[in-house]
Amino acid sequence: MQHVVVMGVSGAGKSTTGEALARHLGWPFVEGDSFHPEANVAKMRAGIPLDDDDRAPWLRALADEIARNEALGRPSVMGCSSLKRAYRDILREGAPRVRFLHVHGPRELLESRLSHRAGHFFPAKLLDSQLAALEPLAADEDGAVVDMALSVEDQVRQALRLLGLEG
């Protein structure tokens, strides 16, 4: 059994790609943003970047959710920025096999998406803080990278192939 965390900075399309991947696999999708404590949401709404102390309880809650699915014998797909390896290490504590799918793309596309996104608590001006914190997957981390400029269907096809989840 395994769990796939769809990662990337805000605006990359983690939720859209993650939901599509989960639908294709028949696995539940977990929206990581819904686990943020209200204090984190308020801080981001105010344009203040989260720090490691802000993220720690949120990441532990997400690792607990992965563990809950693991205990139920149910694989899952989760959307979570997972910007740093240390954050991914916390998520990996949730189950023996937690993999990552990094949805990545150019700054211009990220800015465009964020400027056209309505109703989300993350303001576009925080993009720089996320890009500065982002640590791409290391060679020894179980995961793959897909291009956010691809259609969602192509991202899912590529993810299935790269993660060996086809057929």
UniProtKB/TrEMBL annotation:
Entry's transmembrane regions: none
Keyword Ribonucleoprotein tagged: no
Keyword Manganese among UniProt keywords: no
Protein name per its UniProtKB record: Gluconokinase
Family annotation (NCBIfam families): therm_gnt_kin
Keywords for the protein's UniProt record, in alphabetical order: ATP-binding, Kinase, Nucleotide-binding, Transferase
Chemical reaction(s) catalysed: D-gluconate + ATP = 6-phospho-D-gluconate + ADP + H(+)
Gene3D superfamilies assigned: P-loop containing nucleotide triphosphate hydrolases (3.40.50.300)
Pathway the protein acts in: Carbohydrate acid metabolism
Known EC number: 2.7.1.12
Family of the protein in this entry: Belongs to the gluconokinase GntK/GntV family.
InterPro entries named among the record's database cross-references: P-loop_NTPase, Therm_gnt_kin
GO molecular function, one term: kinase activity
Class of the enzyme per the UniProt entry, highest EC level: transferase
